[in-house]
């Protein structure tokens, strides 16, 4: 069974990215197992504790249960055996598919959660304007319907829609997958600014080891059959001091472990093919 106290690797020393105070636990997941159907066990025992302001990434091969773990943490599905404590009511979930309402213009899609939260029109306008700017949308874009947006724009819109609600807990399932390299970087920056300014806590799924090591305080590596955490990497270098070179070094160090390289089918990964 995996426990945070069993951290087997701290690959960088230095000051934590998050010198934000971490006094209490905002999320505590204790899982004995999860099965969608009685026969197949999808997740094995796992415990995850997150402090306010912490960014944790889940990486692992397709089908190892990353999305399932995030859905359980976010309360979208109940674990078949286990419990989740969330010490806040303010959370947002962002999936690969944008889930924008096709009959609403971009502005109204972004303001949707704010209307539900009964913010005034002026407050809605201010929040949407800030998020729209951060996500690179023009005034003209805000009048468009989702069908008139590109795949990347839809993804940015979904990120903006989650950000405007200013959640304490943000669950991200591959939010950047449809974005080009430059946009990804911009999104990272916008997201990190948001996270830093409000000590938002993030649990994120990504297929991209480099992305995980660039953005997270901790990276949990999952293996399949049944899904379980087999390695935890704590990165203490502050986010704003991280470089591509550092992330590449961390990636190389992680993949120098044959078990991890096998998991990602990345043996001899230094070679292009
Ligand atoms: N609603 C469901 N009902 C039954 N089985 C499911 C359901 N959702 C997922 N599974 C199964 O649970 C396992 C884990 O799926 P999950 O989507 O959590 O993995 P993942 O690591 O996020 O995959 P990917 O990286 O491909 O998105 C898979 O075997 C999948 O078929």
Overview of this structure, please?
By secondary structure, this protein is α/β, with parallel strands linked by helices. The chain folds into two domains: 4-90 and 168-263, P-loop containing nucleotide triphosphate hydrolases (Rossmann fold, 3-Layer(aba) Sandwich); 101-166, no CATH class. The chain is built from nine helices and eleven strands. The strands form two sheets. The protein has a seven-stranded mixed sheet, with helices on both faces. Strands 2, 3, 4 and 6 form a four-stranded antiparallel sheet that branches. Strand 2 and strand 3 form a beta hairpin. Mean pLDDT is 84; it is low at 1-22. Bound molecules: adenosine-5'-triphosphate. Adenosine-5'-triphosphate binds at residues 36, 42, 60, 62-68. Residues 1-11 have a biased composition (Basic and acidic residues). Keywords: ATP-binding, Nucleotide-binding, Transport.
């Amino acid at each position: 069974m995996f426990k945070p106290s069993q951290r087997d690797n701290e690959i960088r020393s230095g000051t934590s990215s998050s010198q934000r105070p971490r006094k209490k636990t905002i999320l505590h997941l204790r899982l004995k197992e999860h099965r969608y159907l009685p026969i197949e066990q999808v997740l094995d025992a796992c415990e995850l504790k997150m402090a306010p302001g912490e960014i944790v990434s889940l990486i692992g091969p397709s089908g190892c249960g990353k999305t399932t773990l995030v859905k359980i943490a976010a309360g979208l599905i109940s674990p078949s055996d286990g419990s989740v404590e969330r010490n806040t009511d303010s959370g947002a979930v962002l999936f690969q598919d944008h889930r924008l309402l096709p009959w609403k213009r971009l502005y109204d899609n972004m303001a949707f959660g704010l209307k539900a939260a009964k913010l005034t029109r002026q407050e809605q306008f201010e929040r949407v304007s800030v998020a729209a700017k951060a996500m690179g949308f023009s005034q003209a874009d805000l009048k468009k319907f989702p069908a008139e947006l590109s795949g990347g724009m839809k993804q940015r819109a979904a990120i903006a829609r989650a950000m405007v609600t200013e959640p304490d807990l943000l669950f991200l399932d591959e939010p950047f997958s449809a974005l080009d390299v430059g946009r990804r970087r911009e999104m990272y920056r916008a997201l990190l600014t948001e996270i830093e300014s409000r000590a938002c806590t993030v649990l994120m799924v990504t297929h991209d080891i480099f992305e995980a090591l660039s953005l997270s305080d901790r990276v949990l590596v999952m293996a399949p059959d049944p899904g379980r955490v087999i390695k935890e990497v704590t990165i203490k270098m502050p986010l704003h001091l991280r470089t591509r070179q550092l992330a590449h070094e961390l990636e190389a160090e992680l993949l120098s472990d044959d078990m991890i390289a096998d998991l990602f089918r990345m043996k001899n990964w230094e070679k292009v093919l």
